[in-house]
Amino acid sequence: MATDRYPRLYHKIEAALQDRTKSDLLRGCMKRGRDTRAAALEALPGGASFRDDVRAAKERCIENLPRLKQQFIERARQRGAIVHEAATGAEAIAYCLDLARRRGARTIAKSKSLTTEEIDLNHPLIEAGVEVVETDLGELIIQLAGEKPFHLVFPSIHKMAPDVAEIFSRVTGTEVPNDIPAIMKVVRQYLRPIFLNADIGLTGANVGIAETGGICIETNEGNARLVSSLGSCHICLIGMEKIVETVEDALLMILAHPVSASGQLPTNYVTWMHGRSPLGEGPTGDDRESHIIILDNGRSAMRDDPEMREALYCIRCGACMNICPTYGVVGGHTFGHIYPGPMGICWTAGVHGLEVAGDFAQLCISCGLCKEICPAQINMPQMIAEIKHRDAAATGHLLVNRVMMGADRAARLGSATAPLANLALASRPIRQLLEKTIGLAAERRLPPFAFSTFMNRFAKRVSRVATPRRTVVFFVDVYANHNNPDLGLAAVDALEALGCAVIVPNQDVSGYPYIAYGGMDQARRIARSNSDKLAPWVRKGYEVVAIEPTATYALAVSYPNLLRGDENARLLADHTHELFEFLIEQEDETGFHPPADLFAGRRFGFHCACHQRPLGGGSGAIKWLRRRGAQVELIETGTCCGMGGTFGLKGGLLGYDLSRAVGQPLFDLFVNSGVEAIVTESSVCSIQLAEGTAMKVYHPLELLTLR
Amino acid sequence: MDFDFTSRFEKLSGIVHRVASPAAAAEKVAQLCRERQAGCLALAGLEPELTAAIEACCPAITVLKEPYSRADLPAAIDRATVGVTGMAFAIAQSGTMVEVSVNDATRLVSSLPRTHIGVVREETIIDHYADSGPLIRAIIDSHPEQVVISFISGPSRTGDIELKLTLGVHGPEEAHCIIIAAPA
Ligand code: SF4
Ligand code: SF4
């Protein structure tokens, strides 16, 4: 287990990195999912605000789940359905086996259901002599190929038309031409007798409605309609978290799901089933049966665990998989167990165990993007951090992750011994040794340490504001303090030029690396310490301004989540600003007009760091540059540059190599964009982009001095 | 109205026909059957007059209609080339026809044949998706036992091979909606 888990993971990553075609296909799927979603949001009245509604509805329904489940069961029974609660997967399987045996079933037609995959329902049935046929085309292709789904919404996306034609030629025994309409005809003919003769139809459900005792099933192909209306018996396996309170809740989920997955509203077919529907008129001797199995399988425990509860808000739309940068390279066969992608880490931990989740949780580079796209706004980054934390408590942290978490200490040492440390970092043999011993990628060109830190220099500096309009608390973090004090001081100059007095009170580093690698005790300690140190200044009416996007994100987003209910953390979060957003505000307030031709004739490509997205997407910096006459284009792939904070500083497959593969499409965009240089506010993204593109990369403030 | 049902349904690869009366709707059904050289037509969930009118318009075609005997289902309906079902209402914003069935024969009529035609009364088209809640609740509440509501927004579609949109993998590859104009 723990001893060979990483070699196994490395092996899979290596294979995935070599299979370019697959990752290109996967990225194509993901991009299409994101683009169609974005287009749908444009057309949707209220745009992305439905996420707030979904979040609120899920919070309410999961809070009241025991009551709603009881109500659902009562109503469904009143309507003639047979309801069974299964505490475990084994119980659900036993129920289905028993039912199949009692009914003498030989064939079960199935429509796509992740919940049946979760408990691996097919195999025991097949072993018991029942033929189980997937009817969703993608799932059928995968089943006939003997493989596992590659993508949640498009499970067989790695199979091209010729592959599919070959599969159906094999199973039908006749040559299937290799074009899609012809394949469809064959599929239709192949499945029709199965639909007509299946003894049992087996489906999942996307929603259960407590108010009515009904279930909703969504498909585009219409296979679930057939599966649930043909056989003399229908089994629905539903995860208990799918139960909502009202018809309106159901309508919301039915909308949020396809909008987030593929930009549809709603899927082509939505079936709201209530009771056992009879088939045709006639003597009632052979009444149809409708069985609903409500599955727990770890869900109650997730609900009781404050760190994991949010996972139950998941509506399985797959949007998080459409944005996760590392998933986009390695795919669901590496980044997942049964449940793939970001939510796969959380759900695997909940239903298949911490250890299984820990096998691939390290693929999360904590970019935070999954949370931003999730219709239920699930805080997966933090949940995954918690999983890494618990996993490490059982098996220990990887050495290299310990090193990265302690980067601030190393930086302190680096500054103190700057000439020597810089020499060492510039030396190939030493870098190779460092990669071997602590895992720091030898290929990375790291910024040198400054001998005199920002803190030292700021302490000796005299303020230039005689009568301050307001006072700003400056949050420095590691890079500006230890590597680039000039940048920190330029930020202070810019603030002072707008009449803001700047103070740099006692503070710790942001601590984000602890979150990224799952050092949750330290992360909480730092969050508390910074909140306690800085909140008193906020109470005096001062605003906090941070220069590094990840540090700003830590203060403004992570701390209140780490310290739920902590007033200082909340206060600090509400008053933390990105530097440029704040500068623009001050310019507007004071009516300050910068020279409009300062950067005239210059064209820059802007890179928005992932952690900046929920903070304003870099709009402050872009405005600041444009006000000074620069032409600025936001250049993005829609996911991450691959650096993932310090992830890309680590050597090897689970670091540098994967990080470069994630970044490549973005590097290409920049190189082909025709801009003269890249501008970004993130110190680590700038290392990645400079190496990946061989272009010049600047912080906006650097442009002032480097003209 | 903020939304247009026709353009939305057609964006989803459906086909809309507007007719002036139930008689014209029956004529439209007969025409669609002729064009598809249908030998067998299945009807369900329609107003009795409309069922009679369609039958009268299609003398050369085997017409299956309610009550369907459980003895020969689902095979009987599988023989039909065209299936016609009545719709309780429709939603313009999402291009959705809403079918209500208390007997799964209705669902088979709209899901087994290659061509499905839904019949919608113009006055039952609602504008916003979110406004369908009370209507759905009323339908469910008026059936204390079984009832199945089906949202149908275009034909059966898949993108499972190379992400290319392909119609009719299982159910109908053509979805028509005949809208009977509201009486003036
Ligand atoms: S935080 Fe980023 S890397 Fe981690 S799971 Fe979410 S999207 Fe993937
Ligand atoms: S976690 Fe959120 S984005 Fe991911 S599948 Fe679930 S609901 Fe969708």
UniProtKB/TrEMBL annotation, chain A:
InterPro entries: 4Fe4S_Fe-S-bd, 4Fe4S_Fe_S_CS, Cys_rich_dom, FTHF_cligase-like_sf, Helical_ferredxn, LUD_dom, LutB/LldF, NagB/RpiA_transferase-like. Keywords: 4Fe-4S, Electron transport, Iron, Iron-sulfur, Metal-binding, Repeat, Transport. The keyword Electron transport applies. SUPFAM superfamilies: alpha-helical ferredoxin, NagB/RpiA/CoA transferase-like. Transmembrane segments: none annotated. Residues 304-335, 354-386 form the 4Fe-4S ferredoxin-type domain. PANTHER family: LACTATE UTILIZATION PROTEIN B. This is 4Fe-4S ferredoxin-type domain-containing protein. The lineage of its organism: Bacteria, Pseudomonadati, Thermodesulfobacteriota, Desulfobulbia, Desulfobulbales.
UniProtKB/TrEMBL annotation, chain B:
InterPro entries: FTHF_cligase-like_sf, LUD_dom, NagB/RpiA_transferase-like. It comes from the Bacteria. Residues 5-180 form the LUD domain. This is Lactate utilization protein C.
